[in-house]
Design a protein that fits this description.
By secondary structure, the chain is α/β, with parallel strands linked by helices. It has three helices and eight strands.
């Protein structure tokens, strides 16, 4: 049974390594125009795209996030009204806690037509120990795209987030480039664990099965 589990983890390891390679390849592709229709979001995650439109800053949403050097702050999720009439929710980047409110950072408000280039990311589900989102307080802890769209009364919303690329202007907020291409891959550890347990149990079996039987004493 332990060997079966080990073999299964080997299959999972190969699958995960293939997925990581595929996503890294996709991430490195040149940017293209955002598609109008997206049938399979999994096929587009980590792909660079560009879109033009106008930001709806009055509908900005703030997601609690840890920024550079471990500083607490917020990622700014702002709807963009694209030129095709659909909405795209953009993660514009991170600001520190003291800049959560727009009144404290008027230079981050971009009016007029803008072109945004970034990486497509899927909506997230709540993790086991994560706090609940609080839309009524504009306080989010994980990116739930359908809930965010509903909270801002948005219809015809593109089914993925767009995370902007990093702006290399020193000291400029928000700080983009919030995408980290990192997938958890513990399958090799599991492989070693299951095979290791199998070897230990085999060794214990051999020790006890090959040990000379004790002589029975004569009884009178």
């Amino acid at each position: 049974m332990l060997c079966i589990l080990g073999n299964w983890q080997v299959e999972r390891l190969n699958w995960k390594l293939g997925l990581i390679e595929k996503l890294e390849t996709r991430y490195g592709l040149p940017s293209i125009d955002m598609p109008h229709i997206l049938l399979v979001p999994d096929d587009w995650e980590y792909r660079h795209v560009s879109v033009s439109g106008r930001f709806l800053h009055m509908r900005e949403m703030t997601l609690y996030s840890i920024g550079p050097k471990g500083r607490p702050g917020y990622d700014l999720f702002t709807p963009l009204l694209a030129q095709d009439g659909k909405y795209v929710i953009i993660n514009r980047g991170w600001v520190p806690e003291n800049l959560k409110e727009q009144i404290s950072r008027p230079n981050t408000i971009k009016s007029g037509l803008v072109e945004i280039t970034g990486v497509l990311r899927k909506s997230r589900k709540k993790e086991r120990f994560a706090p609940d989102n609080e839309p009524e307080r504009n306080l989010w802890y994980y990116g739930d795209l359908p809930a965010m769209a509903k909270a801002q009364d948005l219809i015809q919303v593109f089914p993925m987030f767009l995370y902007t690329d990093k702006d290399y202007m020193p000291g400029a907020y928000p700080i983009g480039g919030r995408t980290r291409l990192k997938l958890v891959n513990n399958h090799l550890d599991y492989v070693m664990t299951w095979y290791g347990l199998a070897i230990v149990l085999l060794a214990i079996y051999l020790i006890f099965s090959l040990r000379p039987a004790g002589r029975e004493e004569d009884h009178f």
